[in-house]
Amino acid sequence: MKTVFVVGAGPAGMFAARKVALAGHNAVLFNRDIKPGGLAEYGIYPLKDKMKFGLRKQFAQVLALPNVYYFGNVQIGNGYDLTIADLDAMQPSAVIYTSGAQGAHSLGLPGEHSSGVYAAKDFVYHYNQLPPYSSQDFSTGRRIAIIGIGNVAIDIARWLLQDSPSRATTEEVTIIARRGPLEIKFDKKEIGYVGRHIERAALAAELERIRERCARANQDVSPQTIFATHFPMLNEEDFTSIPPRLSFRFLASPTAVIPGPDGRIAQLEVADNDLVLRPDGSTKPVPNGQKSVLDFDTLIFAIGDKHDEKLGLPMGPDGYATQTDPDHPNDPVFQVWDPAHSSPLTGRFVAGWARRASTGLVGIARHDGEVGAQKVIDYLQSQPEGNALSPDEVLAALRKKGLHPVTKADLALLGVAERQEAEKRHLNYFKYSDNPSMFQAIARARQQADKESKLQPVS
Q1: CA-CA distance, 271 to 27, in Å (whole number)?
Q2: Tens of pLDDT along 366-376?
Q3: Domain 3-102+307-406 is classified in which CATH homologous superfamily?
Q4: What pTM was estimated for this model as a whole?
Q5: pLDDT tens digits, residue range 157-197?
Q6: How many CB atoms lie within 10 A of CB 241?
Q7: 319 CB contacts (<8 Å, ≥6 apart)?
Q8: Using one digit for the tens of pLDDT, what is the confidence trace for 91-136?
Q9: Which CATH architecture describes the domain 103-304?
């Protein structure tokens, strides 16, 4: 039996660990957060309970495997709890990094560090109660801009319009896209959650504003076309809009954040774009020299994620470095590549969003983790038995460093505490939103379990 370390316990990591374990090896999971799940737990919209419950059940089945070990509350990277060198010193037979893309893209705008300006991932972590984001300031105002035109942008708009504790103060959420409405990335199911907040006449007026520019790129953006393609609810005879408003501004690229006297964003400068038709039929937004200044007191970037360079893996042009096989350029590559020495890093692999950031949802991440794990399993066949620390020795080493790793046994106790709290509050599910509360809940559940065990009759 060989030992594989898996860094990250989102869908890619959990199902990679499962595949490694079922192949007869030890799978040791290291996770930044106390609880496993990653974006499956802290990225999916809070009210999508059925999906979350199903995933939690699957993750529990993975952790129930006797040769899967879990150490939560341990972050890997330079300046974090453990470095890659620290992991290597434990002599695993292989390491698969599935820690996702923990950085966020920004546009590098003047003024973008003003208060009230947030990355989408951080904002989503906040309302999904992931520590420490859950306790940080992500206050919103009356007029909120979201940069991006995908499902994440719509999820955030839904939260702001319907479910945020501060929704009563929200007047308008505006989604800003540098391309036109035919390049919309969100799907009809997601827009269906917020469609009633769109004013039909206002969207028609926006389409008319950009009609000529889109027509020059052979695009028909008439209300008849766009409503049918992306906003079917607007064609319903009994459609009526409700506040707060959801609006759109197309062919607009933000160029500067303008703060007010209090340091919070007060306005957003945007450049108007023309749509240029490329020879291959795709389009390119090009600034036409016209600019506008729009009043906003909150700005959220929903333009994708990037890899965290502090993890310590070699970086390539698109994230952590991997080398494409020239004979199979379209095949996914999981082994980490060292550009400095033009050679692969032996026994080091990436999967999930750590391989390709912001690619697909849970099912795709699971598949990528499993395929990556199979690459690891194939690699292990040619490797000798190693001298990896046992899971107990890993736990002792972590504690010796002054860390407070959370084990599978701790997770079980936390689950008991959360179920009891949910029953007390008459909720379907409850989760703690800060680490101290989780540790306290684990300690209370352990004391309760010890007390009950002492009361059991001796057979």
Answers
A1: 51
A2: 999 999 999 99
A3: NAD(P)-binding Rossmann-like Domain (3.40.50.720)
A4: 0.93
A5: 999 999 999 999 999 999 999 999 999 999 999 999 999 99
A6: 17
A7: 101, 306, 307, 354, 355, 356, 357
A8: 999 999 999 988 888 889 999 999 999 999 999 999 999 999 999 9
A9: 3-Layer(bba) Sandwich (3.50)
